[in-house]
Amino acid sequence: MHGNSEQLMIAVCKSNALLYTLAAPYSHPQNLSGAALSSTRISLTWLPPPTHLINGILRYYYILITDPAGANVHNSLLDGDLLDLLVDGLHPYYTYNCSVTAVTVGDGPSSVLQIQTMQDGKL
Question: Model's pTM, two decimal places?
Answer without folding.
Answer: 0.81
